[in-house]
Structure formats: C-alpha cells, structure tokens
Structure of EXC6B protein:
Amino acid sequence: MAELESLETAAEHERILREIESTDTACIGPTLRSVYDGEEHGRFMEKLEARIRNHDREIEKMCNFHYQGFVDSITELLKVRGEAQKLKNQVTDTNRKLQNEGKELIIAMEELKQCRLQQRNISATVDKLTLCLPVLEMYSKLREQMKSKRHYPALKTLEHLEHTYLPQVSHYRFCKIMVDNIPKLREEIKEVSMSDLKDFLESIRKHSDKIGETAMKQAQQQRNLDNIVSQHPRISGGKKSKKEVCASSDLEVKNTSPMSEQDSGILDVEDEDEDEEVPGAQDLVDFSPVYRCLHIYSVLGARETFENYYRKQRRKQARLVLQPPSNMHETLDGYRKYFNQIVGFFVVEDHILHTTQGLVNRAYIDELWEMALSKTIAALRTHSSYCSDPSLVLDLKNLIVLFADTLQGYGFPVNQLFDMLLEIQDQYSETLLKKWSGVFRNILDLDNYSPIPVANEEVYKKIVGQFPFQDAELEKQQFPKKFPFSEFVPKVYNQIKEFIYACLKFSEDLHLSSTEVDDMIRKSTNLLLTRTLSNCLQNVIKRKNVGLTELVQIIINTTHLEKSCKFLEEFITNITNVLPETVHTTKLYGTTTFKDARHAAEEEIYTNLNQKIDQFLQLADYDWMAMEPGSKASDYLVDLIGFLRSTFAVFTHLPGDVDVHSTMSGKVAQTACMSACKHLSTSLMQLLLEAEVRQLTLGALQQFNLDVEECER
C-alpha cells in the first residue's frame, strides 16, 4: 500500500516538473500552488534538484561540444561591437545634423499649424457670420423703417426676424437681447401708429369744413351738369358725368413718403374758381394713417381695440361738429360752415366704410346719421327762427337743398330735411309778408292819389305793359291823357307778381309736385292780399289827414285792382301749369280784399262828410227869441251847401271809363248824398229839440224854415 502511494507521488512530481519545464513563467503559479498544497515538499525538492543537475550536465556537454564556435562567435561579436560603435557615432552625428536642419522645418510646421488653426477659425467665423449678418441686416432694416415711420413694413420685418432669422442663431447673446426687445418694439410700433391716427383724426376734425365744401361744390357742379343735360339731352350721349368721374377717382388713396404732410391727413389744395375742375372730396384726404394703424392692430391681434377707439373718437367729433355756433343765424357763411363740417365728417366716414372691412359698418353710420339728422334739424329750426331777411332765408333754403343733395349722393336718407324745409317755407312766407308790408306802405305813402298823366305813346305802352288795362275810349283820346287810376295800382300789381316769383323761388328743388307748388303759392298770395295789403290799405284809409279826393281815388284804384285778380290767377297758372279748375286748387281772395278796402273807403267818405257837416253845424247861432226872420238863409248853411256842392262835383267829374264813372256817380255819390242829407236833417232836428231851447218865437222858426228850404233847393 505504501509502495503504491510512493509511486503515485513520484508520478505526480514528474508531471509537475514536466509542467514547470513546458509552462510559461507567468502561468507557473497554479503549478507551484499544487506542490505547496501537497505534503511531499522534501521529496519534490529532491527530484527538482536532481532534474536541475541533469540539465546542467546536458548544458555542459552542449558547451563542450560547441566551444570553438562560441569562441569564434565572441570574436565576431567583438568585431561587431567596434563597427557598432562606429555606426553609433555616425548615427549620433547624423541625428545631430538632422536636428539642426529640422529646427527651421519645425518652426515652419508650427507656423503652418497656426495658419491652419486660424484658417479653421476664420472659416468657422465666416459660417457663423453668414448666419448672423442677415439677422443684423434685418434688425438694421427694422430700425430704419421705424425711424422713417414706415410702421406696417417694420411690423412685417419684425415678424420675419422673429420667426425666420433669430431661431437660427438663438444661442448668441445679442440675439437674446433682440428677442427681449421684440415685445418692446411691437409696443413702440403700436404706440407710434396710434399717435399717427390721433394726428389724422385731429387734422380731419380741423379740415372737415374744407372737405365738406369740396363735396358740396362737386354736388353743385353735378346738379348744374344735370340741368344742362336735361335742357340739351342730345349732347349728353357718350359723355361721362363728373360725378362718375369723381366717384372713380375717390377710391384712389395716395401712398406718399411717411414724412410728407399727407400723413397729417390733408393735402394742400389751392382755392379754385367755380369754372375750374373741383377735385373729388376724398382726393383731399390721405387715409394711409388709418389703413396702416388698422393693419398694424390687426396683425397684433388688437383689431377690436382699434375699432372701438376709432368709433369712440369719431362719435366725440360728431358731437362737436353738430354743435352749431351761437351766432350761426347772423350770416349765410355761418350756416355754410356748419353744413360743410357735417358733410366733411360723413364723406370721410362713407369712404372709410367702403375702403376698409369692418372698421365701420352700415349700422354705425346709420346711427351717427340719425343723431346728426335730429341735431341738425333742431339747430336749423332754432336758428332759422331768428332770420328776418327773406333773402337770407331763401339762401339758407338753397344751402339746405345742396346739403341734402350732397349727402343723398352718398346714400344718406334726407327726407326729414325736405320735410323741415316745408316748415321753413311758412317762416319764409312770414318774412316775405313783413318785407312786402314795408314795400306796400312805401308805395302808398309816396303815391299822389291822382290819375296817371300820359304824355306820349311810349309812356302809355309802358304802363299798359305793367298793368293789364284796356279801355277803347281812352285809347281813342289824344295825348296828353290820363289813366283813371294812380301810380300805386301798377306798382302794387307788379309787387304782387314779384311776391309770387319770390314764393316760386323757394319751391325750386324741393321735389314738390306742380299741384303742391301751386297750392303753396296761392296760399301765400292770399295771405299777402287778405292780411298784408288789406292792412296797408286800411291804414291809409283811416289816416287822419286823408282827403275825400284821395278816398275817391282809392275806390277807383281798388276797383281796377279787383279786376286784375283774374290776370293774377292766369299768371300763377302759367308758372305752375296747374289749371284753376283742378280739384283742391286754392282760389285767390283778392276780389274780397279789394272790395273790403273799397267799402272801407266809402264808409270813410260818409264819415268824413258827416264830420264836416257837424263842424259847420257848430257854427250855427240861432236866436230862438228873434221877433223877425232874416231875409236869407243862415251863413253857416250857405257855406255848408257850397262845400257839399263842390264835394259832389268831385264825384260827378271823375275821369275814367264809363263803368267807373257810373259806379262812382250811381253808387258812391248817391249814397254819400243821401247819407249827408240824412245826417243834416237829423242834426237840424236835434238843434230844435235841444234841452237848452226852452221857448221859440215865430221869427226864429221862420228863419229855421228858410234854412231848411235852402237845403231842399
């Protein structure tokens, strides 16, 4: 058993030795570990030493066998060492020379290295600058646009800069500064554009009257053109009306330098003659500040804010425009300036309505117009009531018509203005009546109340041309001769016609029918006849110093004026083309007026005669206790009869046609005589029945009887 173990141990030691001999030194650790793990260290060391001795013997044998070769090799090695030393020296020398020669190359290589580094840096810099320069250029462009007040392009540039250029170079510090400034720049653009809008609104407010004046001139020219076309329809074909030409040009908006004065909203326009071309109202206005501000606020998402601000400011301006000056009624220029401002305001709003989308809408415009219409009508009612000059009222009416036609051309309803003109027509009639009252008074005061003498045919035809008078008997008479009436007859007749013309002027351009015009003229003429002329005649008749001759002449005059009423009817019919037989046609009351005046004159004659009789009777001095009567009638009675005889001679020797003469003799003279006789008899009876006469003598009664008989004769 022990032998078997020793054999195994010997075999294991042999294997370990072989493994040590054949294994790499780095891997011998596990093999030695197996030796130390065993218990036969001594025996293994013995075997190892025995193996070393064996190898030493083999080495010695090998050396002994190759000794001569070894010696030869050593000899060769010694030779090689000498040559190697030489070679070393040569290599050292060559290296030294190479080092000396390579210093310049090394310096050049270092320089080349630095150049390559710089070139790489420059290339990188160029690449970066290629990205940064467009950003800087866009920012410079933005600043330049803002400096030149081109705000809308500046906003577009800002948007392009923010979304296209800055994201490519966002890591640079200057770009971060730009990004931080973008909101400030937007706010600056917003504020500057709003400032331009405020300047525009202020300028528009100041120049509204100029804009309105131009628009009203344009409307006047269009009306004149329409009148010409209506009078000469042949020449209208193929010609474009001025209104159409101006309408096309009105839509053109000027784009000028932002620094020019167009940014203020108004262009300078020289005052032009009426015959020259009047520019379109919108040609005076540069609306670019509104458009720019609208676009800018739209891009910034604040369009609603802008719309509200614009409408609010324009409403305030509308209220200022609609506030009339306190002295507007004094001159026509006051009304004209007031209308010009209103027209200018709405011309601007109408243009804004048609050239912007939604800045103002039709409902907003209609609301403003309703307010303007009510305030304008109220102001006109108030101020026109102060006008006492019919010429001013007529000019005001023409101005209102032009005002209405101008705004109607822009699509605004103006029916209420024409309705108000009908109210002003009543006031116009009143001012005309006051004016003609003065005219009639002047005519009646200056009249000599004598028949008009005619020295020749020319004067005769002139008077017949002024007043419709025909008398065959008078025409046959030789010159000089006399018309039966005095000068106030043709003058009053012509003034009545002038009044009718004045009424007709007011009715022009009011879009009234012929029947309405005819009715208006007839009503006003009736007021002139029944109120104004009638009062003037009554005042003349009632004057204290009027004589019987004048009263008789007034009767003759009113008779002829009464006959002329049918010619006034024809005159009105001719200018209105409405026949008197038409239903609802008002009749003239001139016949009644002149009849009333004539009756008043007759009554005045009777009254004056009775007053004269009373004056003579006051001279009566009867001696009721006289014993004998006188030989003749009393002196006072003789004088009274002489007065009456001369007075009635005036009636019986009146010049004129047969009709007038018979009227005066048959009616006025007869009635006056009867009235005088009746009054005289009554007065004589009163003398007898007076309370103071308590007793009479026969002589007194006989004297009284003589006076009565004188009256009878």
Notes: The first strand starts at residue 453 and ends at 454.
